[in-house]
Amino acid sequence: MRTWHLLWQQLRRYPSALVGLALIGLFVALSLYAVLAIPYREALLLWRGGEQWQDYPRNAAPAWTNWWRRSKLPETIVVRESSAEATVEETFPDGRRLRMTLAFPYGYGEFPQEMNLFVEADFIESRPFASLLWQTPDGRQFDLGTYRLRGRERISLSQNRDLARRLGAPAHIALLSEPGARPLELTGRVLPGEHRLILDLVMFEDDAEVSTKLISYGRVHGLAGTDHQRRDLMVALLWGTPIALAFGLLAAVGTTVTTLVVAAAGVWLGGWIDAAIQRITEVNMILPMLPVLVMVGALYSRSIWVMLGVVVLFGIFSAGIKMYRAMLLPVRDAPYIEAARAYGAGHWRIILRYMIPRVLPVLIPAFVTLIPSFVFLEASLAVLGLGDPVLPTWGKILNDAQSEGALYNGYYYWVVAPAVMLMLSGLGFAMLGFAMDRIFNPRLRAG
Amino acid sequence: MNEQSVNLTAAAATGSTVDPSVVVAARELHTWFELRRWGLFRVGNVRAVDGVSFELRRGEAAAFVGESGCGKSSLARTLLGLYRPTSGQVVFEGREMGGLDRGQRRDYRARVGYVQQDPYGALAPFMDVRRILREPLIVNRVGDRGERETRIRAALEEVGLSPPTDFLEKFPHMLSGGQQQRVVIARALILQPSLLIADEPVSMLDASVRVEILNLLRDIRRSRKLTLAFVTHDLSTVRHFAERIFVMYAGRMAEVAPVEALLARPRHPYTEALLAALPDPDPENAGRLRELPAGEPPSLLDPPSGCRFHPRCPHRIAGLCETREPPDFEVAPGHVAACWLNQE
Amino acid sequence: MIVKPERKPLLRVEGLRLHYRGERGIVRAVDDVGFEVARNQALVVLGESGCGKSSLVRALFRVLPRNVETCTGKVWFDGDDVMAWREEEFRRRIRGVRMALVMQAAMNALNPVVRVGEQVAEPLRLHLGWGRERARERAAEVFRLVGIPADFLRRYPFELSGGMRQRAVLAMALVTEPDLVVLDEPTSALDVLTQANIMNLLKRIKAKTKTSFILITHDIATSSEVADRVALMYAGQIVELNSADKFFRQPSHPYAKALLASVPRLRDGVRPESIPGRPPNLIEEVAGCRFAARCPVRFEMCGRMPEMSAVAGDGQVRCWLYDA
């Protein structure tokens, strides 16, 4: 307790440490929020993608990018209506005709990305009819066709090629466009005001109901934007945080602790044990780790935990052994260790309780700066396509962005957001680590 | 002494207790270190301790004096069981150390306390005083939690760190040099040893603190009837705190004598040289040059033939000292010198 | 040996203060220190660890760490007020040329990959711009002076014993024929016989040359080997400054008395006595005499800081008992 307090007293004097701590605190808070707001299973399900994302636009930039856009990009507009609230025009035996009006006020200067109508009809056997009519604020009307409804369906206005041919452009552009001089000539400018989608429904069952949802997909969405599968990137950015922290921390702890114990054991026990450790390390140091990871990923498993295990395993006999060895050699000959031998302390007690604690303070800063390097490693693996197939991570976002040609297509946010998260996490740990280095290694302080 | 020690070796070998008042005895003790080039080829042996015999009695204060590299620290570490003797025996309370198994070896180590030169280095910087003192108890499975605490407090009281509560939670760097050395002594005492080996216990301390620590060691020795072995290069500090002095040179005993006899009439030229080299605070010193033997201590890898001091000795007897190793001459009761000058 | 005081001392220090910014406050390492060193005189600055004696050396040589709060006072070297000089001039004309320093454990700081001869000759080539040949000849000359065979010039430091290395370091300091050599704990890491040899050597050099010495040490017995005068430091101040004769025979300051009584003597049956308590750390503000808390003869005056007062001979003592 007191040591923590002392550490804090020291850290407080380094602005970089405070910034670093703030960043790490932010990431920890984000992790907590992610874990609490989106339970793990749900996060995995969400990230799998599919119908649950149908209300979201594809490849939409974050909403705040509108701040610096002269012409604001539209957000997603959802208009709902159900037959229960609609005006009944006519009733006849075993049925009724009614008109549903989906008022669609549109004030953006840019066209939406896409427009879809979702219709959910509740009936027993006779399928209702719906004829769709688009009414522009200036009174023009477009017949969008008649549909015989099934249970649930998506009427894709934008992708209806017949309609597009008829209107001269995809529906979401043609319908919202300001009329030109001649009929069907498009100016390419949005006609603002209240557009209406009128559904004339004929239902042949008394208790049949229809509910509809008109979605005008925006070109910006939320804080993080969406990807090619309409997934909100926020999910992966949020959930990427605890995964990155956990991976970085576990890998750093795993490698540091085991390496330290192995190095200390080598230094203390000496002889052939030390020689063996040194030779293994030298061989291991020239083995490139990345190809090994690629092989494991390709041939065995891409689970993040398997990767973690491999990273730790290869990390044990790393260059760290040489560094720790150099630090532990003078400790081995320290008088207090000789005293411990004199009162009968055994080998493992000396290694674990006398040698390692002595060098620990010097290692903590290095340990802190080691965490982000493992976070980066995980991201690199994901970019190489060796990321965990089910987990939403920062690296996965980058991987998707890369494979979808995000930068080529101008979806810079897709790359920038995870990159910023990676950089900030690196920065946070590095700033804290460097400040701690100054505290724990007073030699650096004189400068 | 030579003859006598041979007899004692025989007695010890048969396992019989020789003399209950003898706490520790060394018999023809050799501690050599193998020297290898590139860790492979044996170059030779560093003969740090090269044939040393003595006995220390209960409650006795003995000082092993010599220059660095004379083997006094290696001897101390051999007695502590930190180095395995190359040959010869250490007999501790009637039992030969070489024949001990692992558990007995640990017991033996617990019966010998160790006080080192550098008090700050001798204390683990990351442990507080309580943990420093608890470690030997835990390692040797002494007592339960409560009993350990009682012992720790008693040990602190005994070395004059009272009230103990003020010190239990301190880390070594918060203590002064003298206090650190007291903690080291408390740690050496906490297992109730019968022999305390102090390797230069005050050489790193300030003059005004030295006497305090030496007084403390003397008081503890008296109250506990402890055998105390000082290892030091400084004859003047042990003059008032040791009863017998063992002068070592190049891995061997040059002279052994009670303090007063040694100071009054040294019988080995090396002892004479040591005494001549040591100043007392005296303004007269500035006006005169000291007479000192030429040269440097010999290499322990290849010590000189005959008497090891002969290349530097001002009284060398030509034809004798270079060729024949001097035996231990008993010049007076309890006063032994390994020098041909004492030959009748 | 009695040195006739000259009218103009070689070194004169007045009101020297060196304060550091520490983690917990101002460290008053050197506080109002003044002394003189005459030509061919040896002054011993005696003090226990942490009394500020090493800081005194730093201030004299102007090799200061970064966290210096104040460094004030007057230092006259051979009549020149060198504290007022710019660093550049001080480096060119004084440090390493007329005033040489043998640092603590300097013998272990020799460059292991350069032959000792070259290291000894380096100050000549660096400070005085001498040619290689001339510098080598001079190096051989100082090697003879410090008692190292000339063929050792071509050896590497590891080929020399501890005593030899200490001699080499001394040679390095003497090579420019400085007026003043400052030795910081020159013998503390050496063995008894080696130590005595080095002290013999210093005595010889002092007799042969006109060099003055300042010997900084905690070793009271060894310090008496060369001292003409003794300055005893306690908690950043000089508490007694006196001739060696007076200091070792009849010390005046209570601390000096206690310190001398604490030295175990080989040729004397008197038991050494310890000094109870410990010195104040240099951060604490002590209102009065800094030794008062441990002093056996303190009285009410000791609550105020005493000034240096003259005592018999040509000594000065910082103690109210001697206040005239």
Topology diagram in text:
The complex is a heterotrimer of chains A (447), B (344) and C (324).
Chain A (H helix, E strand, L loop, with lengths): L1 H10 L3 H23 L2 H9 L28 E6 L4 E6 L2 E12 L7 E9 L6 E7 L5 E8 L3 E5 L4 H7 L3 H4 L2 E3 L6 E5 L2 E11 L5 E9 L15 H37 L1 H16 L2 H11 L4 H13 L2 H14 L2 H8 L4 H40 L7 H10 L8 H29 L7
Antiparallel strand pairs in A: 1-11, 2-3, 3-10, 4-7, 4-11, 5-6, 5-10, 8-9
Helix pairs in contact in A: 2-6, 2-14, 6-7, 6-9, 6-10, 6-12, 6-13, 8-9, 10-12, 12-13, 12-14, 13-14
Chain B lengths: L1 H12 L8 E16 L3 E17 L3 E5 L6 H8 L7 E6 L2 E2 L5 H10 E4 L13 H11 L5 H14 L6 H4 L8 H13 L5 E5 L7 H18 L2 E6 L2 H5 L4 E6 L2 E7 H6 L4 H9 L51 E4 L2 E3 L7
Parallel strand pairs in B: 3-8, 3-9, 6-7, 7-8
Antiparallel strand pairs in B: 1-2, 1-4, 4-5, 9-10, 10-12, 11-12
Helix pairs in contact in B: 5-7, 7-8
Chain C lengths: L10 E12 L2 E13 L4 E5 L6 H9 L6 E10 L2 E2 L5 H7 L5 E4 L13 H13 L3 H14 L16 H13 L5 E5 L7 H17 L3 E6 L2 H4 L5 E6 L2 E7 H6 L4 H8 L46 E4 L3 E4 L6
Helix pairs in contact in C: 3-4, 3-5, 4-5, 5-6
Structure overview:
The complex is a heterotrimer of chains A (447), B (344) and C (324). Chain A has 447 residues and is α+β, with helices and mostly antiparallel strands. Chain A has two domains: 2-49 and 230-444, MetI-like (MetI-like fold); 71-217, Jelly Rolls. Chain A is 52% helix and 18% strand. Chain A contains 14 helices and eleven strands. Chain A has a five-stranded antiparallel β-sheet with strand order 2-3-10-5-6, with no helix packed on it. In chain A, strand 8 and strand 9 form a beta hairpin. Chain B has 344 residues and is α/β, with parallel strands linked by helices. In chain B, the strands form two sheets. An eight-stranded mixed β-sheet of chain B has the order 6-7-8-3-9-10-12-11, with helices on both faces. In chain B, helix 5 crosses helix 7 (177-189) and helix 7 (177-189) packs parallel to helix 8. Chain B starts with a helix and ends in a 7-residue tail after the last strand. With 324 residues, chain C is of the alpha/beta class. Chain C has a domain at 11-98 and 178-267 and 276-322: Rossmann fold, CATH 3.40.50. In chain C, strands 6-7-8-3-9-10-12-11 form an eight-stranded mixed β-sheet, with helices on both faces. Chain C has a four-stranded antiparallel β-sheet with strand order 2-1-4-5. In chain C, strand 11 (308-311) and strand 12 (315-318) form a beta hairpin. Chains in contact: A-B, B-C.
